[in-house]
Specification:
Blueprint (H helix, E strand, L loop, with lengths): L6 H9 L1 H19 L3 H4 L12 H15 L8 H14 L6 H16 L5 H31 L8 E10 L4 E8 L13 E6 L7 E6 L9 E6 L7 H7 L6 E4 L16 E6 L3 H14 L5 E7 L8 H11 L2 E7 L14 E2 L4 H7 L6 E5 L2 H13 L7 E4 L11
Helix pairs in contact: 1-7, 2-4, 2-6, 5-7, 6-7, 9-10
Length: 404
């Protein structure tokens, strides 16, 4: 365990919280600008999250502010530490990289706060940074050790070959990946993601996270990717250029959003759009390992053109016997009809969930775009579903609170 923080440091860091609330995004923007002067560090990041939306900047600013406010109650930061540690596993960020961040962060604080960044404040934040860095390093070492102990486990980047490419809808395609070395893969936890390093010909290297859509096994991973028209092109490369036989570098499965090994309560799997991918992994696992579990698979899509993997999901439900499938189309096409191509028109609502699912006892797992989560997470809270029974995965950095 790292050396405990001094009482003086705790007091100074907590006292700086208002300044961080006012200037946090400016500090993180300055920090990233300094970090990215070093190509070696720049290459570690997913730069799709550094774009105009500022999602990564906002996420880091929120995390720093939460740290300042809870520095005397670090148990409250446990979930954040776990999430960051898994991201570092995915991007293969190592303890050797922490000094670069420390230097950039402290310089950014001094730059943005100016004369208010006294030597005492900078020293306190230096101590606080390294305390948190040590906690993260220890947790990351534990995760890496756990991975290596498992059959097929590895650390860092490993080459995988695309062995099949299947169109699931007009916008989603599935890719089955097997190790180039012919070895086994570590069994992921259903809900986790892979981080891919994509190197287009004559293009800029990209790193992207994609949820695993297959159940755990030791032979392969399947990812199901939506083609995004905007952005830097990771999904477009996979859809338009990558083919069977293409090689991608991959880090081990990571992520703190997953189905427990022994689910004890009914499960409601809620997804929007391509957010169904980790839910399909969970569903395959439930069919394989939990034949008596009550499950509600509730999915929202625009229409039949964009609805991916529907027949596969319904076949899984039929094989299990205790899985109920409900699909919603918000923009049905002329050929779509509720009761035939899908179950309901419109959007998933808390009122519908209250009437159709065991809201007072079930565990809820949600994945989808932010508007989907902003709608349903607070709505479930208003229906009396306790926060410890609501588990959700963001696409991209978690930069906004979803509580009611």
């Amino acid at each position: 365990m790292p050396k405990p923080l001094s009482a003086e440091t705790i007091q100074i860091v907590k006292a700086s919280a208002p300044a961080l609330a006012a200037h946090g995004t400016d500090i993180t923007k300055s920090m990233y600008a300094r970090l990215f002067r070093d190509d070696h560090i720049r290459e570690l990041f997913n730069h799709a999250n550094q774009g105009e939306s500022g999602s990564q900047v906002n996420a880091l600013a929120a995390a720093i502010l939460a740290y300042a406010r809870n520095i005397d109650n670090l148990a409250a930061l446990g979930p954040v530490v776990e999430r960051i540690a898994h991201k570092h596993i995915g991007y293969h960020i190592l303890p050797d990289h922490y000094p670069f961040v420390a230097k950039a962060l402290l310089a950014a604080i001094a730059d943005v706060l100016g004369s208010a960044a006294t030597p005492q404040i900078l020293n306190a934040w230096g101590e606080a940074y390294w305390f948190l860095a040590d906690i993260l390093s220890e947790r990351e070492a534990e995760i890496r050790d756990e991975l290596l102990k498992q059959s097929g486990g590895w650390n860092g980047w490993r080459d995988f070959v695309i062995v099949s490419k299947t169109r699931e809808s007009d916008v989603v395609t599935s890719f089955v990946l097997k190790p180039k070395d012919g070895g086994r893969v570590v069994r992921h936890k259903p809900g986790q993601y892979l981080t891919l390093r994509i190197k287009p010909d004559n293009g800029i290297e990209m790193k992207r996270n994609y949820s695993i859509s297959s159940g755990p096994n030791e032979s392969f991973y399947r990812i199901s990717v939506k083609r995004e028209a905007l952005g830097q092109g990771g999904s477009r490369y996979l859809h338009d250029t990558a083919a069977v036989g293409s090689v991608l570098s991959v880090t081990p499965p990571a992520g703190d959003f997953y189905l427990p090994e022994l689910p004890e309560a009914p499960v409601v799997l809620l997804s929007g759009g391509v957010g169904l991918t980790p839910m399909v992994s969970m569903l395959e696992t439930i069919v394989e390992e939990h034949p008596d579990l009550e499950v509600h698979f509730v999915h929202g899509a625009l229409n039949s053109a964009t609805h991916a993997m529907d027949q596969h999901v319904r076949a899984l439900a039929k094989a299990h016997g205790k899985i109920r499938i409900s699909s919603f189309y918000s923009e049905p096409q002329s050929k779509d009809a509720a009761g035939s191509s899908h179950d309901f028109d419109g959007f998933i609502t808390a009122e519908w969930l209250r009437k159709q699912t065991p809201v007072h006892e079930a565990e809820f797992y949600l994945c989808g775009p932010k508007p989907f989560l902003r709608s349903l997470v607070p709505a479930l809270a208003r229906e009396g579903v306790s926060s410890d029974r609501v588990h959700y995965e963001f696409f991209g950095p978690s930069d906004e609170r979803l509580a009611a």
